[in-house]
Request: fold
Amino acid sequence: MSDANIRAATLGDIAAITRIYGEAVERGTATFEVEPPDEAEMAHRQHTLAAAGYPYLVAERAGAVAGYAYAGPYHVRPAYHWSVEDTIYVAPQFQCAGLGRLLMARLIAEAEQRGFRQMIAVIGDSANAASVGLHAAVGFRRVGTLHGVGFKHGRWLDAVLMQRPLGAADSTPPK
Reply:
């Protein structure tokens, strides 16, 4: 997908990001959020992550935001500081065209540049083959499944845990 542009998200992207995520919340099982957040909440989330030094990216195609990805804290306790959790959503009309892989590759590179050492994926719904496959394609390995931990759209859902080392990973102390 050579016509895609991956760049840092800006406040001007929030409306598109909110639409993409809102559709995923309402129709999908990749997220266990059940009510789509509004633009103000999505702007707050993006600002909070960017201000804390986490990468937050958008993919543009033909001048429109087609997807987004970011890394955020895996957990809040200090020992987890060097581990991040990834999030990625691509608008339905742009799925299965390589955009997710481009976003993930850039997100991984930016997380490594910022000194993070592990990236964790918490994938909603073990039937989400596209997300599991995308993560596997960029070097994640499946490390576990949490069975029946979410209830959405009238059914119990698993969460798949995947992990990918970044940079020196756990071979040296962080700087």
Notes: The longest helix spans residues 99-113. Helices lie at 14-27, 39-51, 99-113, 129-137. The beta strands are 4-8, 56-61, 64-73, 83-90, 118-124, 141-152, 155-165. The chain has a mean pLDDT of 96.
